[in-house]
Structure formats: structure tokens, C-alpha cells
């Protein structure tokens, strides 16, 4: 922990720096591969929609000493095609079926009652129509569009439109990869999944805005100083907030992991599993995008501006002349240095040891003559 704290202080002061902006192409390629896998998963496998979205029936009952295979066999004998049967904890079972014909739900309920040895009244039954799931899907998409629209306006006012574009691309990146993972792995999409998907948008945005705020501070009066390029200032902002982003992500992921592995794995709560699963995947992807996607995209767009291109030339000229200029991220390989080239003809002062304060030496005071008696 002490080493992590020391690293955070070194990143904050600029003593060390990870070349994130300089390696942005590698991160873009990694995200492109993930997005391609997500698209292929959606195209060939599709999403495994729950009963709430495609219609069907759900039966929930106590099942002590009965295996999943026995329950599935009883439900199939009653006429259900390809039912989903899962254990909830140690003493309950949940059965999901597709759309049923009139009177078929009662047959399944009676078959489960006989096989489980419990009265039919103790079996919870829920019939869901496909129109309800369609209505929920439309509302979720509508909410997402309104959220992104308001987000773009807010970020455009607080920062600028290019930062808003970077944040929106990062959010779309997070949603696409999370949904793609669901398609590839075959997770069931339920209303709790939609709720969790909308929740991770706010989390990913929070982490991105933290970096943006530092970026705004580092780029204030950037063109007047002629010491940093925009990419250098952006790379500095990411490094200065890197430890905070890692700590925030870990603190957020730990309780979600507990909810996923304890609540769903041990207690068998199906709704908790759906909610925690999408939160865990989405938060991990959101933490990645806020560091390696959003700000590097902004730097890529800003460096194409004529003003920033002129700034880069002036910084390069000052650096070639040996003046007080910080190296660009492309010139940094893993770590940055605080050493600044000395002007021609002036001997370079040795670098101070970590934590040592370098101050100019004072001239010795003239000694006063002793008072005359």
C-alpha cells in the first residue's frame, strides 16, 4: 500500500509517467478487437432474452432433495419445450418456459406439484406477455438517447464539444462491449440487466469527468507558455488521476463482486445475479475506457487543430534550443524525467535526490564590527 501511495505521489509530481497518450494506437486496437468480438457475438449468437422480453411463464417453488434434471423432466412431460431450470440457493428451484397455450400453465404447475411433493398453491406462478418486454425495451432506449443528449450539452458547456465527443464515444464503447460479452457468453438479459446497464453509464462518466477536470486545469493558457504540447498535458492529466481512478474502480468493484459471487452464487438470488453481473462487467470496461479511450481520443482530435499544431512546432523549437520544455509523450518511454536541458554555455545542475528541496544558496552575511567602548 505504501508503494502505491509513493507511486501516486510520483505520478502527481511528474517524477514518473506512463506513456498512455503515446501508445494510444495500441489501446485503440485492443478496443477495436473487443468491439469486433462483441459485434460478431451479437450477429451470430444474439442476446438470450429473458421471459420478461419474449414472453412466457416463471414457476418458483421449494425443492429439497430434488435434482434439476428431475424437475426439467417433469416440466417437459407436461408439454414445456426447452425449459430453463436453475437452483436458487439450496432449497428452491426456478423454471422458465416460453409462451404457453391456454391451460398449459396449470398442467406444468400440477406436474411440478407431484414431482416436488408440495401443494400446487405453494408454487409461485408468473405469466408474462411479450408486449411488456417490448415496452420496457423501448423505454430503456428512449432513456438512453435522452441521457446522451443531455450529457453532450452539459459537457459541451463545462468543457468543450471535443471532450463531449470523447466521453460519448467512451460510453458507447462501454455499452457495446458489455452487451457483446452477454451475447458471447450467453448470459440471460433481464430487466435487472437493463437497470445495471444504465447504471454503469453514470459510473463511467464520473471517472471520465475526473480526468477531464485535470486536463482542463493542465491546458489553461497552454498556448502562451509554449512548454507543453496538448498531448503532453493530456498524458500528465491521466497520470495525475491514475491512482485515484484505480482506487475508485477497485472500491466499486469489490462490493459488486461480493454481490455477484456471494449473493448470487451462495444465496442463489437470480435478480442479484443479473444486476451484479452487468455492473461488474460494465464497471471494469468503464474504468478502462476513461483512462485509455476518452482522453486519448480528445488528444487525437485536438492535435489536428492548427493552433495546437503551431504550439507543437514552438515546443519542438524550444526543446531543440535547450530551453525549459517538457518532453512530449511520444518521447517518453515508460517514465518521464524532471531534468530540463540547460541553455548553451551554462553547466547543468545535478538533479536533486527524491524529496530533496533545491533552493538557491544565500550570500554570506557581512559581519558587523564589534562595538567600540
H and E string: HHEHEHEEHEHHEHHHHHH
> What's the CATH class label of the largest domain?
Mainly Alpha
Strand content: 5-15%
Q: Please give the share of residues in helix.
A: 55-70%
Summed up, the domain count is 2
- Total number of helices: 13
* Average of pLDDT: 77
* Poorly predicted residue ranges: 331-361
Q: Strand pairing plus helix content: what structural class?
A: alpha+beta
Describe the fold and architecture.
- With 373 residues, the chain is of the alpha+beta class.
- It has 2 domains: 8-48 and 132-306, Multidrug efflux transporter AcrB transmembrane fold; 56-128, Glutamyl-tRNA reductase, N-terminal domain (Beta Polymerase, domain 2), CATH 3.30.460.
- The protein contains 13 helices and 6 strands.
- Strands 3-4-2-5 form a 4-stranded antiparallel β-sheet.
- Helix 7 (161-185) runs antiparallel to helix 8, helix 10 runs antiparallel to helix 12 (270-302) and helix 11 runs antiparallel to helix 12 (270-302).
- The radius of gyration is 30 Å and the shape is elongated.
- The relative contact order is 0.13.
- The model is unreliable at 331-361 (pLDDT under 50).
Amino acid at each position: 500500500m505504501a508503494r502505491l501511495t509513493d507511486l501516486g505521489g510520483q505520478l502527481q509530481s511528474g517524477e514518473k509517467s506512463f506513456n498512455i497518450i503515446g501508445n494510444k494506437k495500441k489501446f485503440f486496437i485492443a478496443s477495436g478487437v473487443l468491439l469486433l468480438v462483441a459485434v460478431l457475438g451479437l450477429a451470430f449468437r444474439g442476446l438470450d432474452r429473458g421471459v420478461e422480453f419474449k414472453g412466457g411463464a416463471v414457476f418458483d417453488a421449494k425443492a429439497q432433495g430434488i435434482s434439476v434434471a428431475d424437475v426439467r423432466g417433469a416440466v417437459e412431460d407436461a408439454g414445456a419445450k426447452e425449459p430453463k431450470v436453475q437452483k436458487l440457493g439450496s432449497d428452491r428451484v426456478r423454471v422458465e418456459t416460453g409462451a404457453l397455450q391456454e391451460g398449459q400453465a396449470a398442467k406444468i404447475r400440477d406436474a411440478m406439484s407431484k414431482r416436488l411433493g408440495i401443494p400446487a398453491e405453494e408454487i409461485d406462478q408468473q405469466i408474462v406477455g411479450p408486449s411488456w418486454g417490448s415496452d420496457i425495451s423501448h423505454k430503456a432506449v428512449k432513456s438512453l438517447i435522452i441521457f446522451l443528449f443531455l450529457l453532450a450539452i452539459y459537457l459541451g458547456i463545462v468543457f468543450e464539444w471535443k471532450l463531449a465527443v470523447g466521453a460519448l464515444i467512451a460510453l458507447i464503447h462501454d455499452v457495446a462491449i458489455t452487451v457483446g460479452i452477454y451475447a458471447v457468453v450467453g448470459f440471460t438479459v433481464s430487466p435487472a440487466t437493463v437497470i445495471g446497464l444504465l447504471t454503469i453509464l453514470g459510473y463511467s462518466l464520473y471517472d471520465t469527468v475526473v480526468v477531464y477536470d485535470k486536463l482542463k486545469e493542465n491546458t489553461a493558457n497552454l498556448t502562451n507558455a509554449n512548454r507543453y504540447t496538448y498531448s503532453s498535458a493530456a498524458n500528465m492529466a491521466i497520470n495525475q488521476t491514475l491512482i485515484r481512478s484505480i482506487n475508485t474502480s477497485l472500491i466499486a468493484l469489490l462490493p459488486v463482486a461480493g454481490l455477484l459471487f456471494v449473493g448470487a452464487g451462495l444465496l442463489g438470488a437470480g435478480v442479484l445475479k443479473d444486476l451484479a453481473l452487468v455492473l461488474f462487467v460494465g464497471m471494469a470496461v468503464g474504468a478502462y475506457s476513461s483512462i485509455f479511450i476518452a482522453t486519448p481520443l480528445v488528444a487525437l482530435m485536438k492535435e489536428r487543430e492548427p493552433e495546437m499544431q503551431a504550439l507543437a512546432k514552438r515546443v519542438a523549437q524550444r526543446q531543440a534550443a535547450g530551453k525549459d520544455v517538457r518532453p512530449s509523450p511520444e518521447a517518453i518511454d515508460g517514465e518521464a524525467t524532471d531534468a530540463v536541458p540547460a541553455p548553451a554555455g551554462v553547466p547543468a545542475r545535478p538533479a536533486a535526490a527524491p524529496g530533496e528541496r533545491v533552493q538557491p544558496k544565500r550570500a554570506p552575511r557581512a559581519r558587523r564590527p564589534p562595538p567600540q567602548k
